[in-house]
Amino acid sequence: MTDTHYGPIDRARWSRSVTAVVNTLDADVVCHTGDIADGTVAMRLEQAAPLGLINAGLARVYVTGNHEYYGNDAQGWLDHMQDLGWEPLHNRHVVVERAGDRLVLAGVDDLTAKGSGKVGHGEDHRAALAGVEADLPVVLLAHQPKQIAGAVTAGCRPADLRAHPRWPDLAVQLPGPGGSAGRTRLSRHGERTQLYTSRGTGFWGPPFRVFAPSEITLLTLHAG
Fold first, then answer.
1. Cβ(204)–Cβ(38) under 8 Å?
2. How many degrees, rounded to 5, is the angle at CA 91 between CA 220 and CA 219?
3. CA 88, CA 98: separation in Å to the nearest integer?
4. Which SS3 state, helix, strand or coil, does residue 152 take?
5. Per-residue pLDDT reduced to its tens digit, 101-119
6. Is residue 205 part of a domain?
7. What is the pLDDT of residues 7-16, one digit of tens each?
8. Domain tally for the chain?
9. CA gap 77, 81 in Å, rounded
10. Torsion sign across C-alpha atoms 37, 40, 43, 48
11. Number of Cβ atoms within 10 Å of the Cβ of 11
12. Domain range for residue 177?
């Protein structure tokens, strides 16, 4: 899931329904790839509360989007998601294991983090992947599709970079890595890296979407 954009319009009920849908998927890993809210944690506490009720068999992981930095509370959201039981992938990774198979879940800060003035924030693929064993598959989370270039440069293997749709949602022909805005796309970058771009779960601005249905993505990974 991505781009929940909790904001001035109270969508606590919608947030609860999103959680209910995610929980029907019985996922091993649940990811939130940024733009969690417009505003501070204190302002959006009720709308974000259902995130604490999301179930995952192995891990719940989160990376920041640009709106966490626009709202000047990126660190607050990282801390709050940790309080809710999520793993903030703030240029770091975790390893999950099932039936003896291991998978690396890595994440990087949004592209806007570096210019935000927040100390210790800024996209860093090498830090996120530091110490990863060469033979392990990697799912790398980032908010914007254009961050795929840094992933490939850093030597990422199979990658799932799920990113937000550009505004407005109706501008589906805008070019960009991994496909155009509002359109679901899986693309390949280099020999071993793939990019998945999500249409996003919520909306930003007026409460409507045009030619870009809201998306909660279920990805099933298979051994190569």
1. yes
2. 10
3. 21
4. helix
5. 999 999 999 988 888 888 9
6. no
7. 998 989 999 9
8. 1
9. 6
10. positive
11. 20
12. 12-197
Contact 198, 177 (CB under 8 A): no
Angle at 162 between CA 105 and CA 53, to 5 degrees: 70
**Dihedral through CA 37, CA 123, CA 134, CA 153, nearest 10?**
120
pLDDT at position 174 is 29
173's tokens: 């022909």
Low-confidence ranges of the chain (pLDDT < 70): 154-184, 204-212, 224
User: What one-character-per-residue DSSP string does 17-43 give?
Assistant: HHHHHHHHT--SEEEE-S--BSS-TTT
Q: Is residue 60 part of a domain?
A: yes
Residue 224 lies in a domain: no
Q: How far is CA 32 from the centre of its chain?
A: 4
Q: What was the pLDDT predicted at 9?
A: 87
CATH number, domain of 88, equals 3.60.21.10
| Nearest residue to 110 (alpha-carbon basis) of 77, 144, 78 | 144
Q: Which residues contact 159 (CB under 8 A, 6 or more apart)?
A: 138, 139, 140, 148, 151, 189, 193, 194, 195
pLDDT of residue 152: 72
Q: Which of 40, 164, 62 is nearest to 108 (CA)?
A: 62
Question: Residue 99 falls within a domain, yes or no?
Answer: yes
Locate 137 and state its tokens.
């598959």
